[in-house]
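Subject: Re: docking follow-up (magnesium ion)

Dear J.,

Thanks for your patience while I sorted out the input files. As discussed at Tuesday's group meeting, I've set up the holo structure prediction with magnesium ion included as the bound ligand rather than trying to dock it afterwards. The sequence and the ligand SMILES I used are pasted below, so you can double-check that they match what you have on your end before we go further.
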Amino acid sequence: MVLAALIGPPNSGKSLMFCALTGQQSGDSPVPFSTDRVYVAPGVPALGEVTIMDTPSVARHSHRGEWLGLIGFEAARRASALVMAIKCFQTGAGPLEYPGCTGDPLEDLQIVEREMLIADLIAIEARRNEMKPSDPAREAATAIHDAISGGQPARDMGIPGSELEDLLGVSLITAKPVVYALNTDEVTAYEPDRLGSEEVLAQRLDFRGAPVVSFCARLHADAALLGEGPGREMLAELGVDKDAAREVAYAIRTALENAR
Ligand SMILES: Nc1nc2c(ncn2[C@@H]2O[C@H](COP(=O)(O)OP(=O)(O)OP(=O)(O)O)[C@@H](O)[C@H]2O)c(=O)[nH]1
Ligand SMILES: [Mg+2]
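The structure tokens for the complex came back this morning:
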């Protein structure tokens, strides 16, 4: 089984994406930070060996335990891969202004990525404090700590995450392979050239070679709740020819293979 955690800022649509991908509801809501625990949906045929988790949102100061972000980080540590939810829809969202989040996809993504780096630094520091001065892993811990302090995610260090984990005895969130999942607007789904499309966003967001998928959580959640046949018909009537779950599962497998 490959466990993949949906991670992202509040109201990016993680819970509705979870429904779109699994056909199971964790409860989307216009209220930010509405998800307060982890939801797991094993055994979804379209996802194959991939199991998706919905998690509480990450925002500024999540690393300190604010906003239930530590529950999201805990899920991320357990996961083999992260699916980073990026809000690219304008409609149907709740209030966008809340402390520590901007509603801008780029800025919110940067906040989430920074929080993950800080969470990893804290985990390495705690681990290093437990090590004896003579422990050979101490030097490696310091080198990795310094690289992460400089803003480098552990996945970009050229060492597989499992090796880093064995070396340090801690699971690093920024070592996990990432898939970027753009939650696009219904309007963008019909007219992909409109602002907010993957190409336009790709110019602003730096995906560093990671797989990118885009789908409208609202449309695909509605389709998933109808069941496979009627759901596909509903999407076809709207001119949407996309199997979001299969695309996401494929992207996760690709991210894992690229990390080997
Ligand atoms: N129109 C539209 N609304 C969406 C879409 N995705 C999510 N929403 C709405 O945006 C709001 C936030 O979605 P959620 O799925 O609850 O977002 P979240 O990231 O899980 O947020 P929290 O867990 O509450 O922090 C809900 O009202 C959703 O129905 C979408 O693709 N289109
Ligand atoms: Mg949620």
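A couple of observations from a first look. The two ends are 17 Å apart (CA to CA). Confidence is low (pLDDT under 50) at residues 92-96.

Let me know if you'd like me to rerun anything.

Best regards,
T.
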